[in-house]
Amino acid sequence: MAKQPMLKFVTVARQMPEKRPAELRAQDFHEIYREFADAKAAEQAGRCSQCGVPYCQSHCPLHNNIPDWLRLTAEGRLQEAYELSQATNTFPEICGRICPQDRLCEGNCVIEQSGHGTVTIGSVEKYLTDLAWEKGWVLPIRPQAERTESVGIIGAGPGGLAAADVLRRRGVQVTVYDRYDRAGGLLTYGIPGFKLEKNVVMQRVEQLEQAGVQFVMNCYVGVDLSFDAIRGRHDAVLIATGVYKSRDLEVPGTDASGVVAALDYLTASNRKSFGDEVAAFDSGALNAAGKRVVVIGGGDTAMDCLRTAIRQGAISVKCLYRRDRANMPGSQREVQNAEEEGVEFVWLSAPVGFSGGGDALEGVQVQRMRLTAPDASGRQTPELIEGSDYVEPADIAIMALGFEPEPLPSLWGVPDLAVTRWGTVKADFRSHATNLPGVYAAGDIVRGASLVVWVIRDGREAAEAILDYLAQPSAVAAE
């Protein structure tokens, strides 16, 4: 009888891929985890308990069939494992790298709850897809039949690209419009290379280009091309712009030259990794080298800024967050990585202003906080401790407080496009249809700033809804 390949969690300890030493990885922007070897991937996949109710799958926004492709990996059936993993996920190699697995699939693993340590799902997923690219298992997109209908997608981020993939596989003609010079959205310009090397994103973009997806880059809708013109060119339109407007602090001194937005800072760094000329980086305005850096915020974007500043050669890097470690929104795994690399976290602290001579930043005025007793929902509210103010010296203060939607109706000249009171596009949560006929919306522009995996799910769902719309004889005829 063949040896049981699964249920090894009692005898085999959880093990992540080898992590590059902090002192070495802090000197470059390469990914910090090495690849699993075949045997190690099979061993770790074999720890899966194959439980009857797979909470890992139900807590994955894409509902990936995780137990089955873990079993196939443990059995050495790697191509089948890859094919199953990509059946529900357009970009498994990206999710395997940047999903906060500790809050999703791995955080809800049954053996994790029983104290044996979670299965390293994300690392196995990354391993499978990287192997698939290496072995040629990632096949070109070739529709069985071409269709005459066309769809315009505004936004080349993960939601727009996921929708383009689904639509193009079904033969629909797809054009993607984006304001940037490269596709990928935040995958390209918002997430640093040490979490997601850019060739991983570019190979997916190239796959879509080779499949016939047309990309119109450097295109500002409402300036270079009107929204109505895009609607006139296509049978349906998907809005997948994401949210890019940075949240601001309403405190004195935010106009100082050293106070910068997180996305501006990360975009400059990522552009340099492509070899681009970036004047704001070269002048030092968006370069942390030799400077004291303070990052304000506690989410994953803040973690990206902190760890980028370390790699740029900052003298010191500190994170100010108004709650404690247990209540921060960012991945605990990312916090650990940042601490290993030399980041100092200043918990229960909030900026109340910025100080400096002239317009140059010299420090962040900080006030200590404490958490109140839990309310009825169990949530603790931070409150200021009177008389606890102090100044944190800083040459650059990076605002990583999250993102808000841009006012699309006014920017695009479409006042009839319905939005919520938060400014997000109002769309049906099942079909992703907006109030405008043939216009759909998906991703962060609908749900607010979220995770890439949710955006991929939205893009795939919206594409299926658009296919249903195109199948209605009256829909295309009415265009």
Automatic annotation (TrEMBL):
Key words of the record: 4Fe-4S, Iron, Iron-sulfur, Metal-binding, Oxidoreductase
Q: What GO molecular function terms would the record report?
A: 4 iron, 4 sulfur cluster binding; metal ion binding; oxidoreductase activity
**What InterPro entries does UniProt report for this protein, alphabetically?**
DPD_II, FAD/NAD-bd_sf, FAD/NAD-binding_dom, GltD-like, Helical_ferredxn
Q: Which residue ranges does the record assign to the Dihydroprymidine dehydrogenase domain?
A: 25-136
What sections of the sequence does the record tag as coiled-coil? Answer: none
The FAD/NAD(P)-binding domain is annotated at: 151-452
Q: Does the keyword Metal-binding apply?
A: yes
**Matching NCBIfam families, A to Z?**
gltD_gamma_fam
Could you identify this protein by its name?
Answer: Glutamate synthase, small subunit
User: Where does this protein come from, organism-wise?
Assistant: Rhodobacter ferrooxidans
